[in-house]
Design brief:
Length: 618
Amino acid sequence: MNFKQSLLVVATLIFMISCTESKKEPEALKYVEEPHSYAQPNEAVITHLNLDIDVNFDKEVISGSANYNIDNNNANEIILDAKNLVIEKVQADGKDTKFSLGSYDESLGQPLKIEITPETKKITVFYQTTDKTEAVQWLNPQQTADKKHPFLFTQGQAILTRTWIPIQDSPQIRITYDATVRVPKDLMAVMSAENPKEKTADGVYNFKMVQKIPPYLMALAVGDIAYKPVSNRTGVYAENSMVDAVQDEFSEMEKMMVEAEKLYGKYAWDQFDVIVLPPSFPFGGMENPRLTFATPTLIAGDKSLTSVVAHELAHSWSGNLVTNTTWDDFWLNEGFTVYFENRIMEALYGKDRANMLGLIARQDLDEEVEGFKETPEMTHLKLDLKGKNPDDGMNSIAYDKGFLFLKTLEELVGREKFDVFLKNYFQSNAFSTMTTERFVEYLNKNLLEKHQITFNTDEWIYNPGVPSNAFEIKSDKFEKVKQTIADIMKSNKADKEVAKDWTTQEWVYFIRNFPEDITPDQMAIIDNAFDLTNSTNSHKAMVWYEQAIKHDYRGNDVDQKIEEFLIKVGRRWYVSTLYKAYAGADKVDEGMAIYKKARQNYHSVTANTIDGVLGYNK
Ligand code: BES
Ligand code: ZN
């Protein structure tokens, strides 16, 4: 090559480089704008948390430090979310640094703005919780099963983790964590992490979560609990007096795991345990990774309410592995999970059971849509929760319409193709987040266009109500139950025999489908035949109580039973159904009289909801 030629080569190279430079798109921002977090993760984002805390039951305070590794994009500030916390001191790379708390929003709390330099790699926040910390419920011994020791649990979803840890509290952020937790010596601590199986001598517990999780899945429980294995990778935690019953009730956890893995690929979190908490726990279950938190109302003695365990296990894929990017995309977590739960139940117990569960979901959906007549936008799958507390916008639409959307698709394309599609979806988006829009793109490309199928996806997702092409779930068993109701209404006689083999689902369907004009006398006939007021199955009892309130049935001391139930149980879905029944039957005063006694036992998420239902002023 002569001089001229090499000059040409160099010039061409420079030209090419400058071309690629100028063609380069501005780098897409990794995180989207999010209405429920103050964090600015495109500037500086947390990647790992080292938590070091003391749990003080006498003062009802958690205190200590949250130490973060950060991914710093040349920023001079990092913003965390904090709500009702006392921030004592903040350090950047081990040296005290300036911080400020911005103005307080009733649902979001405050931005915690921390001064850093573009070189900062770690920040540490020293803090304490307060008596306004909403995630944590401190229980006295009387509120536990064994009545000897206090208990504590946290609930992070949707935006409550910021009330017990200062953190970038957005579902699109993912962190690994480790933690040191100091508790009274006679108690055990467990987290959404690798857990102890026995108590330590000194009450100090060390945890590690090596998979990246969104902050709403940070969770802690402390109490006098014991562990029992179900298989080599599943097991249960509960208070001593309950742990054997819990182990029996959930003995099919391993089978559920096997079926779930067949459907959507390998379980990504190694261990799957369930802790049964005291009855004030506000949910049926909460899918904290490696350790689902659950209500004791699932312990029916006959494994009849374990679909909740299947549901929380299903979240190990839908939600925990592929996470909704914002709370507006909540249906991607819950709709997929209900669909997946239904598939697990079908695999374990057969089509009849799955159809019954599906039809109960369909009935719930129709009632919920009817209830949102005045605000039909609340029945879209994709929500717009900006300016709202996400908790107020989360209802059963995401669950039941989301389920029906997927069920309808499955029936249309055929199970085989649908399963391939879903498995690929979870595997190719593992440990990341998904927006509704990106899901629609993925669906078009990998299912609909691929198999040349047309589908009204947009109508399902962005329009109100239930589209007319919804798959119609049928259940022969429920048809028979309907006939039984008709027979009883006609003859005014009820025969115990007809129901002797009924599952909980049939009972629930039976009770929920009484005619609107059923009389208290007819309810007495039913109660005397089936002893529903004294049912020990919480779901059956709850729907029976709902009907008793609605139709003014007061036999067999049912009022007393309802009051006891509402004082003891804090599961939001159950208690809100009952308080809504009081409100709807013009009996707010009766409901309020009970609520005044019960409220102190409820976790904040339940109390907040019921305050709204009854118009209670704090
Ligand atoms: N993740 C939810 C609970 C949740 C939802 C907490 C929204 C906070 C905000 C959990 O998986 C769930 O859906 N629980 C249900 C049970 C399920 C079988 C429908 C419940 O608690 O009733
Ligand atoms: Zn769920």
